[in-house]
Amino acid sequence: MRYLLAGLLIGAIAGFLLFRGASASEIIPEFYNSLHYESIPDDSISKSDTFIVPMINRLLIVDRTGNCVRTVEHDDLIEYSGNGNYYIKYGRIGTKIELFGINGERYWQKDSREKPFISYNGKIVFLLNGDHSGIRIFDTNGNTVGAEQITGRLCTSIEFSDKNDFSACGFIDGYYYFIDGQGVIINSGRVPIKNSVKAVKISNNGKFGFIHYGNPIKDWVRIVNINKNKSYDSLLDNVHVVRTAMHISDDGAGVFFDNDKILLFNKSCNLKFKLDVPKKKAGFSTLSFEDGIYVLGYTKNTGESQLVVFKKDGDIFYAKDFSNESFLSGTISDKLIFLRGSDNLIAYKIRLSTE
Known about the structure:
Elements: H1 5-19, E1 26-34, E2 50-55, E3 58-63, E4 68-73, E5 77-80, E6 86-90, E7 96-101, E8 106-111, E9 115-118, E10 125-128, E11 134-138, E12 144-151, E13 155-160, E14 167-171, E15 175-179, E16 185-190, E17 196-202, E18 208-214, E19 219-225, E20 230-235, E21 246-248, E22 254-257, E23 261-265, E24 271-276, E25 280-290, E26 293-300, E27 305-311, E28 316-322, E29 328-333, E30 336-341, E31 344-351
């Protein structure tokens, strides 16, 4: 593996100066590696200590030091579980869908042209039909489970919880559904008439849902208390024609990336803070959360990629642009910020003042 020493040193200096302050917390560069390297097999690495990096015709499994410990070669389209234990192969023009374990063992195969989606632990698989009007629900063994099928008019969003097997889906006619790890619908509803669901999220504990909905003129967000079957709405300043980053935490706090602002709502959907950030380009953006820290990655309207790390109280304590990356996705796991850019893998370690 090659280290880009110049970038690493610059990142180290910038990280020390930008992150270290009155709180005496630090952000420390861990690695800055090219995506173009061969794997070094290491079966001793725990799945929980790895990150999944999808690429054209192959899947990289990278450990917390930046080593690629395994690659999965494939000629088809692929979906993978968040924990790295399973992946689904399906053809661009073929009729087969196959679920595999990461070591290549096949669990099931179905003759279908549907689009597959798989949950974090691989317990739930959705198959979305061609006109996006129906979702079939399967388990790891290929059996239909729970509600078995959800139907509606043009599915616009399917999402799984970040670290669990809860799921959510929404439709253009305004209907939405929240589903547990057994495929059972635990809550459903509809946004105000003449509005479409644009995106949905569900918390890791399955207690809260977050919905982005609207029309060509106005957009709103809705937070749903799933157990109490109560919902609360808030009007947004901007209309979004493409998906944008959003997140819902286990206590019902919803974060929404609103073009040039980060918005945080409490569980009653009241706005708690608004953070100004460089304006984004319409398109890809990601938002990850762990232990009170959010990681936002996106492409700015000027073409460079942007990283913003902020706390749940609204304090931005690290921000950096990456001029050589055309896109940037980010996740945080056990205080390691893992970034995948268009050309490189980048990581920072967070050390809080309490440690």
